[in-house]
Design brief:
Layout: H1 5-31, H2 33-40, H3 45-52, E1 55-57, E2 60-62, H4 64-94, H5 102-128, H6 138-175, H7 177-187, H8 195-232
Antiparallel strand pairs: 1-2
Helix pairs in contact: 1-2, 1-4, 1-6, 2-3, 4-5, 5-6
């Protein structure tokens, strides 16, 4: 996991870079591929886009690279400002990053990120790809937003969980291999060399146990508050 602001920016950059390209491919080929080929009477999506002059976005036709760049800027800013910090805080409400298994904590972060980013980016896409040649209607916008979420959420969940995030973590560990090894070495406690150090290690473990118990109490209290809110509704 990233340990400083630079690593967080690089991690977000890799995630958004792969995700945006995957979404553009999914939208053009899987969701709208047949429609584009039928409307333009072509046998391939690329030929259909060339014939119509690009991808319809915000009332005009833009080349694919421009659409990818625009979506990348929106997604990268949203991931750094909202997605990454909020998903980490949501995951910490259930799991403790230092106590629970890293796979559980990382999976919770991925699920929280998808739950935040998918509706947000679908709303942005609903504005970007709205048919502005027709009169603007808020209900049409909301319907398009709901449609995009229904298409994007399953794709986002499974690709992020089983493909994109594992690939990003492999690339990230390769780029920051030395820094990650140094961090792990700092976290690994040294073995006690005498009786006094052994006693100090026991007290340290007791402090960690007390902190874990306090975390469990906080988590139980948060769950009880959520249950009370649901019961009041």
């Amino acid at each position: 996991m990233p340990g400083n602001q630079l690593q967080r920016m690089v991690f977000a950059f890799l995630t958004v870079l792969i995700t945006v390209h995957a979404y553009v491919f999914f939208s053009l080929y899987v969701v709208n591929g047949n429609t584009l080929m039928e409307l333009n009477q072509t046998t391939s999506v690329i030929a259909a886009l060339d014939k119509q002059g690009g991808i319809y976005m915000f009332g005009t036709y833009l080349p694919i690279w421009a659409c990818v760049l625009i979506e990348f800027c929106f997604a990268f800013a949203l991931e750094n400002v909202v997605g990454s910090p909020a998903s980490f805080r949501l995951a910490r409400r259930i799991f403790h990053p230092a106590k629970d298994h890293p796979m559980l904590f990382e999976t919770a972060i991925i699920c929280a990120t998808v739950g935040i980013m998918c509706p947000a980016m679908s709303l942005i896409a609903a504005f970007l790809y709205y048919p502005y040649y027709m009169d603007f209607n808020i209900f049409t916008l909301l319907a398009n937003w709901l449609k995009l979420m229904c298409f994007n959420f399953p794709f986002a969940f499974f690709t992020q969980l089983f493909f994109i995030q594992p690939a990003v973590r492999v690339i990230f560990k390769t780029l920051f291999q030395k820094e990650l090894k140094n961090r792990m070495a700092e976290k690994t406690p040294a073995k006690p060399q005498n009786e006094q150090e052994a006693i100090l290690e026991i007290f340290r473990q007791m402090d960690e146990l007390q902190e874990e118990i306090a975390h469990e109490h906080r988590r139980r209290k948060a769950l009880e508050q959520d249950v009370q809110k649901i019961s009041l509704q």
